[in-house]
Amino acid sequence: MDYAVRHNPKNLESTGFIEIMPGRYTGKHWQDGAIFIWEDAFTIAEGIIQEYFPQYDHLAMNDIPRSAGRLIAKDLQNAADTLQFADPDSAGTTLRLPSWFRQDFDKEFLAHRMDMRTMLREVSRALHQAYDTKEYACILGV
């Protein structure tokens, strides 16, 4: 799976990306200043997001207020740190992965642990930066 975080919407090879941008959703997709993560890869962050923003929807627009978003960003960073030495089962628990995703997670985690950690850190950083200047950050689903 591809866990790379992309920063340029012109380099996206399809529309299957989650878009994270500062501020509320404006009705426009593929904005400069946003980051883009392949939708399947982003699943590893969604359990943490749902813990603090229960109405999160992978397929919809999610305007997340600073109060929840700062907690999400902190927890994503903590998860990235924890994954360094975690076994697949504890990684799945740390990430709050749904049971359907855990079926093939062990091999994926062992093969891409560092890529997952990098993605989680970059998403955390992007959210912190968004909340430095805005009251909301938008996670735009596919």
Largest sheet: 5 strands, antiparallel
Q: In angstroms, what is the radius of gyration?
A: 14 Å
Quick check: average pLDDT?
Answer: 95
Helical amount among residues, as a percent range? Answer: 40-55%
Total beta-strand segments: 5
Compressed to H and E, one letter per element, the order equals: EEEHEHHHHE
Shape, principal axes of CA atoms: globular
Number of helices: 5
Poorly predicted regions: none
Please give a structural write-up.
By secondary structure, the chain is of the alpha+beta class. The chain has one domain. About 50% of the residues lie in helices and about 15% in strands. The chain contains 5 helices and 5 strands; from the N terminus they run E-E-E-H-E-H-H-H-H-E. It has helices at about 40-50, 65-85, 90-95, 100, 105-135, and strands at about 5, 15-20, 35-40, 60-65, 135-140. Strands 1-3-2-5-4 form a 5-stranded antiparallel beta sheet. Helix 1 (about 40-50) packs across helix 2 (about 65-85). It starts with a strand and ends with a strand.
